[in-house]
Specification:
The chain is an alpha/beta fold and 263 residues long. The chain contains 7 helices and 13 strands. The strands form 3 sheets. A 9-stranded mixed sheet has the order 11-10-9-12-8-1-6-7-13, sandwiched between helices. It is globular and about 75 Å long. Bound molecules: flavin-adenine dinucleotide (FAD).
């Protein structure tokens, strides 16, 4: 089975408080913030690597990101993926989910024939949960999201997809696109040997000219979704320093608790 996995590098959540939003250009300034693989994409990688171990074939990682994200992609190769495609071009800046999926689909088509495309259900940062289904549409493949179970005999995949109030079991002919949740598996850890091997694996870089995405849906101009108004919420909390003797402080705290309705 040849499997494509879409992996999005996202800011490490430990540093979310350092991300700034430019209120004029309405873009994020993530400079200096360490990047990690979006959490559900590790589950997508685990699903693909496990299927490859069972049925043979290869796992290729696809990432649309600036060239500085190479180290994050090496983590995906370190987990056990066989090759990587970094899709990077200034023309892609400002792409919304439709443009992102158009570009990823064009890169997957260009890289060869894949039996299965696996994505995270939603990313840690944008979290729109749109790219997976859009990829299915661009590639003309059946697609299922919210996947909590995945099995395959090599020619079809059987999945359970969570729905409101229950779940549905599907059997899908290949090729197909699936978006996985964290229930689907437990991702393996990356060890030092994995990272050393990752550096020897094929690492391809695609520009816009290499993949020929639909030119009407690329970058800011080709993105029908535009950010509306952006405002910074007031994050300050009301606080007061209570001073006095221990008895006075204790009485004041009890009075404030009563005032707050705690009895
Ligand atoms: C008008 C507009 C302008 C924007 N400008 C910028 C900008 O300048 N810079 C910027 O960084 N972002 C920008 N964004 C955000 C960008 O559109 C999203 O990062 C991207 O479209 C993916 O959306 P998501 O994270 O919500 O995907 P989701 O649908 O939540 O992601 C689901 C899965 O799709 C796959 N996936 C998603 N994105 C990628 C990717 N890039 N590479 C590989 N796999 C992926 C992953 O497997 C992921 O788990 C902009 C958005 C809009 C609407």
């Amino acid at each position: 089975m040849n499997i494509a996995v879409c992996v999005k590098p996202v800011p490490d959540s430990k540093y979310y408080d350092q991300i700034k939003i430019d209120l004029v250009t309405k873009t994020w300034d993530r400079s200096g913030i360490p990047t990690v693989i979006s959490d559900l994409d590790k589950h997508a990688l685990e699903a693909a690597i496990s299927l490859k171990e069972k049925h043979g074939g290869k796992v290729a990682v696809f990432t649309m990101a600036p060239p500085t994200m190479k180290d994050t992609i090496l983590q995906a190769l370190g987990m056990g993926a066989d090759e990587a495609y970094l899709i990077s071009d200034r023309a892609f800046a400002g792409s919304d989910t439709l443009a992102t999926s158009n570009i990823l689909a064009a890169a997957i088509r260009k890289a060869g024939d894949f039996d299965l495309v696996v994505t995270g259900n939603e990313s840690d940062d944008g979290s729109t949960a749109q790219v997976s289904a859009q990829l299915g549409e661009w590639l003309g493949m059946p697609h299922v999201m919210n996947v909590t179970r995945l099995e395959s005999d090599g020619s079809i995949i059987a999945v359970t997809a969570k729905q409101d109030g229950g779940s549905i079991d599907y059997e899908i002919g290949l090729p197909a696109v699936i978006g996985v949740t964290r229930k689907v598996n437990k991702p393996r850890l990356v060890n030092i040997m994995g990272i050393l091997k990752a550096k020897q694996k094929p690492f391809n870089v695609f520009s816009a000219n290499d993949i020929e995405p639909d030119p009407n849906f690329v970058g800011l101009k080709g993105s029908p979704t535009q950010p509306g108004g952006i405002a910074s919420p007031e994050m300050g909390r009301k606080s007061e320093l209570i001073e006095g003797t221990p008895e006075e402080i204790a009485k004041r705290i009890v009075d404030e608790l009563y005032k707050a309705g705690i009895k």
